[in-house]
Fold:
Amino acid sequence: MGIFTRSKVSRKPNESMRLIITTFVGVVFGFLIGVSFPTLSFTKLNLSSSILTSIDFSYTQYKNSGPSNSTHVPPPIGNNGSSANVTSKKIWVPSNPRGAERLAPGIVRAESDLYLRRLWGKPSEDLTSTPKYLVTFTVGYNQRMNIDAAVKKFSGNFTILLFHYDGRTTEWDEFEWSKQAIHVSVRRQTKWWYAKRFLHPDIIAPYDYIFIWDEDLGVEHFNAEEYIKLVRKYGLEISQPGLEPNKGLTWQMTKRRGDREVHKETEEKPGWCNHPHLPPCAAFVEIMAPVFSRDAWRCVWHMIQNDLVHGWGLDFALRKCVEPAHEKIGVVDSQWIVHQSVPSLGNQGEAQNGKAAWQGVRERCKKEWTVFQTRFSRAEKAYLKELNSTSH
Structure:
């Protein structure tokens, strides 16, 4: 045991010295190897793209592209969304849409569309067609047969959009066209409520004309493509089909004339028109089946009030959105419809104080008309007053 102990102690200095020498030699050898070969770059290695993320690879390219490099490589986008720009320049473009001033103009997409896209494949190959027109119907399932007949009057150049006020949407798949239509469902809402919230001008910008129609329209004598041709021919920015004259008309202006393609003015009852170029004798269509050009709708959308859902009073104010209104608003006689006057949406109200549901809805319509007229008049007077005060 004594011999073993003495031998172990005597070898310790030799082992320590050997470890020190080995470490020193390794450091010197590594240094010599390092200075003997050129510096390696990630960009010179044939690495799989799975090794470096796209962000890392882009950053490597950016760091290795010096001023002498003729190909400009944009700086990468960091995890926080900021640009890794060594010059620390900030983007601020006042002409961009509000809220997008910090974005480079080339990435801003201020407008959208209602075109349906796939979940697979190349985005550039998604669209086999791009409809030029949009037609919307505010519907209940009970009127499905009437809507089916109406939709068939619109060609493949139209996007079909149904607003469902009764909450029933999947049942419409009994019609083949419904599977390609767009369905928006919110119970007990009117078409103007839907229009204000889902038909923003920047969302439907691709469409030349927008049809915003009721569900109770007979279309036996109507063809949408022929209607568009006449609207273009006569320069109508806001229009509607003529109405069958034997179905209880309210206004003479919207009554179909059998001897012409289009009319833009009429004669009304004595005292109804302050001027022959003003509503309801001219520059006037009703709100049951209006058709708007893209530019006209941009103006009309801004005029629709958020809280006034029935749209009463809009028909008398549409003239403010085109100039001259008596030339650009008219009725297309040769493509006409029948207003069937089905009080379906009216029955979506609630009976109160002994009054039927439809009576409450009608009273609300009349009140909204008065409120809208008051707001419109006050807004114009306030603007003109301010304009006069600043001009002096």
In short: The longest strand covers residues 329-339. Residues 1-12, 37-63, 65-71 have pLDDT under 50 and may be disordered. The two ends are 119 Å apart (CA to CA).
